[in-house]
Structures are given as C-alpha cells and as structure tokens.
Amino acid sequence: MYELQQGDMIGDIYKVKKLLSQGSFGKVYIGKNIESGMKVAIKVEKQEMQNFLSLEREVEILKKLRGIPQVPQLLWYGKYKELQVMITKMLGFDLIYFLKKNKKFSIECIFNIAQQMIEILENIHKKNIIHRDLKPENILGKSHSDQIYLIDFGIAKDFVKSKKQSKAKIPFIGTSRYASVTAHRGLEQSKRDDLESLGYVLIYLLKQKLPWSNYEKSENDRLERIGQLKYEIKPQEICEGCPQQLLNYMTQVAQLNHQQIPNYQKLKSIFQLKINHKQYMIFDWSNTQFVNSKTIQDKKNNNNNQKQNKYDSVQHIKLSADKMSSRHLHTITFHVDSNASSCFNSQQSSSMQHSFGSHQSVQVDFLNSDSSVQSQKKQNKLSTFDAFIINDDIMPIKDQLQLMELENQDLEIKHNLLHYHSVYYNFKNPFQGILSLKIN
Questions:
Q1: What domains can be seen in the chain, in order of their start residue?
Q2: Is 158 a catalytic residue?
C-alpha cells in the first residue's frame, strides 16, 4: 500500500509537510508551494475507496464552482505513487478547533456564521450543487480574517431540478448528527436539506448538543432512532434555549418543499443584528474590531474625555505652580553648614534605596523645612506626581507640563522620568543653587 511521506514532491512544486487529518475516504496533509511559500492542503484518496470515485467527483464539482470565493481553489489534481491526489489552497482550521479553543461562541459569532453560510449555499445552489454533508468540521476559518469557507465536496451532487421527487429509496448520505430528515428517509436531497443541516450546525455550535445526542452512542439502530426523532420533534423543542432567530430560521426552512427555491436574502436577514447599528460582525477567533456607529461615538467621547483630563491636569500644574511661587520663601528653607554634605549624602542614599526598591512611589520630601515636614505628616499620602509638583520649585513649568502629558500616555515612562528627573535632579540641584548663591 502506497503512502505519502514527509518531503515528497508532487507536481514538482508541492512539498508534503505533515499529516493533518484522516477519514473514511482518505487523508489530508499540509503541504507547501516551494516557489511561492503558500500553504496547501493535499487530499489523498484511499486506494480501497478509489472505486467510489469520490475524489474525482469532488474535482469536477470544484471546477464547476470555480470563481466562488469561499470554496476551495483547485490547484492540482492527478496521480502520485498510484494514489489519487488533489491539492487546494490551505484555508484555515475547522469550527470544532475554534470551539474547543474558545470554549463557546458568542451569539454575534454564530449569527455571522449563519449569514455567510447561507450566502455560500446560495452561490453553490445557483450552480446546481448540493453539498449534502454540512458539519462544523467542513467549515473553516482563520485568524485575521472575516470570512469562513465550506470544504469537502466529496459526497456533494450536481442536482438537476426535476418536476417531482424520486420515490426510489437511496442509502443514507451525510453525517447523522446534522443530516436532514430527507437524508434519513433515504430520499433525494435538495437545496432545502442543506439549509436544514445548517440549522442543526448552528444549534450545536450554540448549545454544543442536539436533542438526539444520546442516540449517537447507539450502534445498532442509531440512524433510525435519530431520523425518527428528527421527524417527530417540533422546531420549538430543537431550538429550546436558543435565540428567537434560530427558531424563526428553522420554521421557515421546514416550510420549504423539495423543489422550491429558498429566499436566501430573507433567511440571511433573520440573523442581522440591528441593535447598536452594527455595520458588520466579527468571529470570536478573529482580531477584527467591531465597526458600528455606537462604537465610533464611544471612541469620540473617550477622546474628548482624555483631552479634558489632560486639560484639567495642565490647569492643576499651573495652579500648583502659582501657589508655589507665592509661598516659595515661606515653605522652603535651606540650612547649609559644615555637616550639610554628610546629611545630604545620608538622605540621598536613603531615598535612592527606596526608589530602587519600588516603582510605585518616589520620595521627594527632602527639601522641606522643619515646619514643612510637620505639616506634611498631617496630610494623607500623596501620589508620586503630586509630591513631585509640590516639592519641585526648580524645574521649569514647561518641563512639568511635558512630564504630565507623558504620564497620561505611558505609565512606565512616567516612572522612569520621575526616577531620573525627580530623584537625582532634586537631590543635587537645590544645593548647587544655594552654593552658587552663597559664592555670589
């Protein structure tokens, strides 16, 4: 039995990297275009399944769907090591992967999946293609993207509209958890069956279970029991605990007949959230931001509040500076004697040790006279920047305004500036200024 190996080159430019997944029909490998660097998905049909021609059918369907942006783009098809191989562009991870990663999906995310999937189904139905195997594993998404993709057309069918539905019973086709009632009854599926399966997918993504989940463990009559429950259960019971939109959707789909062309636009409109005037919605795994009028207005209000806060801060600095100027001679006095140098060095060492030990506050109270120290002890603990404003008479007002603006923008820059400009500046320059006055 032939198998693809890591490092195999297909079509001279596609290199096999590693196994991604496998199922009953074959295996999927991650590969790479060695010329462009683009990641690709390499699908290989099992040799024992080649008589079913599933990969050949999928290739023909993808050729017919060429030009639809949210289905796989066929890059290469042929035989390699006696294996039927199909190569498409790598489109991301399936919804089960994201569901396990995010634990659950938001309503906005599920509604966006619904809208995009209805649009994808509309596009492939226009080409008379019925997917017949809708499930979360066949819906892909990726980060930094606001689109999802529908893959795996291995059991899809080129549907030709007929006047009446065939009564001949056919084998079950699809996945039992999400298959339509028609599929369980062994009848030919139509466009409405894809939409019905999508409804089951959406409910599962929301609740992570379906009413027939317990039957899936049964081995003997699993298909019959699940099909019978789907046939008997009412939409209200299936959608219990779900938003009203899902019930509306399932009700409208149930009213469609076999040959009827669905009103896709009407179905999509069910999931359009009109609250907060949202222009579009995002996926939970995407980094795209919401864009809506309310958000834009909130951003404007936040900007205005920030500007007002900066204005208030500037006014606070100016007011503090004016007060300091009026009481400069009364609040700050200097005593220079023979022990001044040793006293300064002792206090400098103590304050430096405190500032290196914590970035949350910087002590700058060394300039106060005895009366100022006693007055300060009666006050509540000041913030770092308030202490800097009250005790600094030497730094120019322009520099103080600039420092305050930096504080509003970046906390880390504030701490660094306070450390270097407040501690060292205030320790050294006051005495240098006094000594220069004394010399003059």
A1: 9-89 (3.30.200.20), 93-289 (1.10.510.10), 296-439 (no CATH)
A2: no
